[in-house]
Amino acid sequence: MKVLFVTSTPFLSEPLGAMVLAAICRRAGHDTRLAILRSGGFLDTVRSYQPDVIAYSAMSTELRFFRDADAELRKWMEKNGKRIVRIMGGPHPTYWPAVAEELNLDAICQGDGDLALPEYLKCIESGGDPNAIPNMATSGKGARNKHLFEDLDSLPFAHREDYYKLVPYCRESGLRSFIASRGCPYDCTYCYNHAFKEMFQGCGPILRRCSVQRLIAEIEYVVRTYPPVRLIRFGDDTFSHKADAWLEEFVRQYKTRIGIPFYCLMRSNTLTDDTARLLSEAGCQAVGMSLEAGSDAIRNGILKRNLPEETVIRSFELAKRYKLNAFANSMLAIPGTTLADDFETLDFARRIRPAAPYFGVCCPYPGTQMWRMAVDAGHLDPQTQVGTHYLDRSVLKSYTQREKETQSRICNLGVLYVHAPRWLTPALLLLMRTRLPLTRLTRLGLFYADYRLATRIFPQAIPRTPASLLRLVRDTFRTFG
Fold first, then answer.
1. Is the sign of the CA dihedral 147, 153, 156, 158 positive or negative?
2. pTM score
3. Do 49 and 104 sit in the same domain of this protein?
């Protein structure tokens, strides 16, 4: 069968979920192709490729792009008498199965699709009940049976070729992404992971990890097949939870067999002296560790991060000691907080001074505990469509329009404030609080934020040719403009 995988946004980080599923389908004898909605030409691809199945991979923040594209597709199919099976996987249908009926999809996949998708394709070819397949559903009631895929070593290497053809600057940049594990043991209220644990409780271990040998083998293959490779990005929610035998073996093999700088995500409680030392020894040049909020009451009460202030401060001190540049997100407009809390978060970030701080307005996602908290407290209409990216203004009803404008200015100027000399901070605070229409001026802060990210966290990933750099800038404006 011919399967067209569809993602929303082109960027430097490859869509590994869709790419692994494409490899699984190819191993089963199917043909696959990729389309990216925000690059345009979706219907043209459908016309030329003539797929039997279209597989959307959707996050909640991107749903409107899939909804619009699917509406066009259905009109085209009706006009031309075509029949294409349409399924959706990814976070949105996993936690919001009602999308099956909202878009009149043929099926949705909740959670891991590694076994579900090839079984569904068999079902299309030979008949049978799709709802009998673990993680698959044909209605908004969701999957009848659930399954966690454990044997990550058995997965084929991600099929990257189609993505690099569509987004050539991604290959030229030298940045390659990998996943070493699945699952997260933490219960942050804004994240899908706590809901995932509830949904798949009793189906097997939530936290699964491939062997070091399997991970290194895939990196070696990509280095040989898709040069140049100048920087490795590990997309795991938390790359290492402790200094265990897996991490020690990773350090030994990565140093001798790969030797390329890398970036990974950590939490403040997992970046201990031992893990920081091992990561640095392996060649890690940067880590992502979220601050989220400056108050323990918010960070641990509302967000359930379970990270005391001293643990957070200590982790960033360790990052500096071991020369691990830290990328740190902070959230504003968290349900149940005030504008004063946002400024406290801003000052907390300035105290810590991560190498690349970022500030964004909190966006409660459907299916998370934060979404339920915001709806139950009357802060959020349950019919609200969430924003299309992290820097949208707050959708909460608990803030005035002026407060939302101030939060937007903090997002724009926050990075400058964190790194500015003391004499400049009063002027930056005044700009954040002013009611004057200075949007273009305050957006200069975002350029500085991008500069810090590019030069401190991903310096090797900057495209080396003017044409590639221009295409990257164009797609960035399409995504965040």
1. positive
2. 0.93
3. yes
